[in-house]
Amino acid sequence: MPKISIIGQREFEVEPGTNLLKFLQGAHYDQSLPATCGGRGSCATCAVRVLKGGGPPNAAEKDLLKGRLAKKWRLSCQMTATEDLELEVPGYESAESLEIEPELLRDILDYAAEQLPLRRVPAPQRITVRRLKEMRHRVEAIVDGGGDPQDFQILRALLSYARAHDRIKEIPSKQPFTDKTVGLMLQAFAKRVPEEQPEEEILTYPYFLYVIVTIFFFLTASLSIYALLVNAPLEQPATPSFTPNPEKAPWYFLGIQELLADSPNLGGFLTSVAIGGIILPGFFVLFLVLIPYIEPYLEFWRRDRARPPGRRLRGRPVTVALFTASILLFLFLIIIGTYFRGPQWQFVLPWQ
Ligand code: FES
């Protein structure tokens, strides 16, 4: 007895010569097959995809289905089970065999470009109208599974967003497009998205150590040669009886020295030394330490703050701006202390 297997569903044994439409109706797989002409072969609303078996199409099928025949669509009312058949029935598709029409993708992309707030669609990459228009030109490659892997990520992001915001019904598609189809499309696209590559691991020993040791020897040799060839600009040996004016700290502490000189003396414990030398630098270091913990609050504008912001500037502009401003402020103090301070720590211009 011939077998009819409905992909992703069940397999049935049927009497030879069983009409396929009648079988599907009897087995309750006809929810998307209205068969409005009652099996007379004139409406094409009983079409299913026959992936295996079925013999050549008859005249009514050729007339009604035309180009769809190449994609294995057949009129179930015109077919009888004389051999084993493998079917995909609308409404019961599986992600593996889902047939996505290019026109449907164009409808989705057009709708997204015009109606969806693309900036708010969470996706691994930025979705722009221009990108969607480019994708529109390669929908044939996408439905054949040959598009850019990022295309599938974008389509997933758009469909997921539209589904989460109950906007699937708004997509003006010429083809039947149900919530279930969307779920299957998401599954199908997910299979085509490349898995995230794990970051390459490099062992500290020996690879990293070789680099460090090589650089160490190279720097030591270079500095030794430089020291032999060029005299250091040293001043006279220090004497307790002579204190240079101004007395400047090494450059990397000059920022603190400048801060200390600029801080007010509030009396009590809050002397200018305590404020400029301990309290303000302490707050600065504490801020740097706390950044990873307070970042979700700093990036208050992000809608999905539960997700890590990534390493790009786009994902963490407030944090990067604050950090950069802190470093620039410190550099600014160092430059002031180095070039703009003279005797008695008075403000001077470097060229005077
Ligand atoms: S039921 Fe109308 S063509 Fe098959």
Pick out its properties.
352 residues; alpha+beta; Ubiquitin-like (UB roll); Helix Hairpins; 3 domains; five-stranded mixed beta sheet; two-stranded antiparallel sheet; 11 helices; 45% helix; elongated; binds FE2/S2 (inorganic) cluster
What strand line-up does the widest sheet have? Answer: 2-1-7-4-5
Overall mean pLDDT stands at 84
- Name the CATH architecture of the largest domain: Orthogonal Bundle
- What amount of the residues lies in strands? 5-15%
Span of the ends, CA to CA: 106 Å
**Which sheet architecture does the biggest sheet show?**
5 strands, mixed
Please write the CATH class name of the largest domain: Mainly Alpha
Gyration radius from CA atoms, angstroms: 36 Å
Query: Which fold name corresponds to the CATH topology of the largest domain?
Result: Helix Hairpins
Notes on the protein architecture:
There is one protein chain. This protein is an alpha+beta fold. It has 3 domains: 3-88, Beta-grasp domain (Ubiquitin-like (UB roll)), CATH 3.10.20.30; 102-192, no CATH class; 246-352, Helix Hairpins (Orthogonal Bundle), CATH 1.10.287. The chain is 45% helix and 7% strand. The chain has helices at 20-26, 59-65, 102-115, 129-136, 139-143, 149-164, 179-192, 204-229, 251-262, 272-298, 317-339, and strands at residues 3-6, 11-13, 18-19, 47-52, 73-75, 80-81, 85-88. A 5-stranded mixed sheet has the order 2-1-7-4-5, with no helix packed on it. The protein has a two-stranded antiparallel sheet with strand order 3-6. Helix 9 crosses helix 11 (317-339). The chain is elongated. Bound molecules: FE2/S2 (inorganic) cluster (FES). The site of FE2/S2 (inorganic) cluster has 11 residues, from loops.
